[in-house]
Amino acid sequence: MPNFATFASRGRQAILMPYFFGQLFTAAKSFEANPLIGSARLNQMGLHKTRVAVAYRRAAARRAKLAKLVSEEDRAAYERDGFVIRRNFLPQAVFERLLSEVKAHRGTFEERVWGETVIRKIIVDNQTIAKIPALKELLHSPDWRNLIAYVGACSSPPLVYIQTLYRQGGMIDPQTRLHADTFHSTTKAWLFLTDVRENEGAFTYVPGSHRLTPEKLEWQHQMSLQAKDSSDRETREGSFRIEASDLPALKFPQPVQLAVPANTLVVADTSGFHARGPSISGTMRVEIWALGRRQPFLTWGRVEPWTSEALGSLVSASQNLRGALKMKSRHWTLRSGVSAFDTGAEAHP
Fold first, then answer.
1. What does the pLDDT look like over 8-29, one tens digit per residue?
2. pTM, entire model
3. Residue 151 vs residues 24, 52, 119, 136: alpha-carbon distances, Å
4. For the purposes of burial, counting CB atoms within 10 Å of the CB of 50, is it exposed (0-12), middle (13-18) or buried (19 or more)?
């Protein structure tokens, strides 16, 4: 016989149902948090499959309007692979100045230990740019803005961070499993400040897996039927995992590691299958990292009136407010007086 807690839970769901329904038309992706998104019955009827297909078509239409912003070579690389690589992205003098300023900067970073990897990041906002002025030349570079806009099918500015990944050994990092970030086109970009070698945490991608082939759409459908009850937390939250051995059935090749020198820009559609490559203990990767994720069902590119640095300042203000209210992050802690180039031992005296 249902107990009081069960009745209360059902009552809460009923009250929130209009909210859950509205989320179907947004980037919401959690099969665990939204009973409609996670409904095996609705997904059997094609709910998730429809969201994936419509979002893909909308992104393709928006990207076509942005095609003139990038070169024919970059467009071809994206269509073929799902990512674009630009070596020697910044003029050497600008890159060396940026690298020097980032190394010299010591401030307050957010930090998280994720499996075997320490992740450290600081948002690039107006205050950060005042201390690292070379960042402005990057953020105002037309190639930077246009490549991120084209791959992400949205000309709104991304959030930008200075990010460090330090492999310290220990538990397996869940981000080393192949996955798609979400059900629709999103973009991430990395301007690497350090050389990235194979088996040292190199960004890994399955070429062509950004395309919504019939096989991939069917795989999305089958995953949606079991995602809510998956033993994998990331899958329950809508970031589906896949094994390399399953790729041939989807007619995709095996993943490649993008081992590249410093001053290389990589911009990728992270709805394609990707991962953080494996690395040996003690390896470190430092980068300028951008994240662009917008509403998937819009028909236009949606240009917001703010810049990346202004957007970063809004996020920074929100973080400061949470700190003042003593609202601790579930995953992240603050480290003061830390450099992006500190190793795990230096950051944890």
1. 566 677 788 999 999 999 999 9
2. 0.88
3. 24, 17, 25, 22
4. middle
The 3-class secondary structure across 84-118, one letter per residue, is: EEECCCCCHHHHHHHHHHHHHCCEEEEEEEECCEE
d(CA 154, CA 145): 10
**What is the chain's Cα-based Rg?**
21
Q: Distance (Å, rounded) from C-alpha 227 to C-alpha 244?
A: 19
User: d(Cα 49, Cα 305) in Å, to the nearest integer?
Assistant: 33
Strand arrangement of the beta sheet that strand 203-205 belongs to: 256-257, 203-205, 274-276
Q: How far is CA 272 from each of CA 95, 246, 255, 269, 285, rounded to the nearest angstrom?
A: 29, 14, 11, 6, 22
Apex CA 295: angle with CA 235 and CA 28, to 5°? 35
Of 181, 286, 306, the residue nearest 235 (C-alpha): 181
Q: How far apart are CA 23 and CA 117, in angstroms?
A: 33
CB-based contact 146:183 (threshold 8 Å): no
The conformation of residue 70, written as its DSSP 8-state character, comes to: S
3-state secondary structure of 278: coil
Q: Which of 40, 22, 147 is nearest to 85 (CA)?
A: 147
Domain positions in the chain are: 17-347
At 103-134, the pLDDT tens digits run 999 988 888 887 677 889 999 999 999 999 99
Sign for the pseudo-dihedral over CA of 172, 178, 183, 187:
positive
Q: What are phi and psi of 338, to 5 degrees?
A: -105, 145
Residue at 291: amino acid letter? L
Give the separation between CA 122 and CA 341, rounded to whole angstroms.
12
**CATH number for the domain whose boundaries are 17-347:** 2.60.120.620
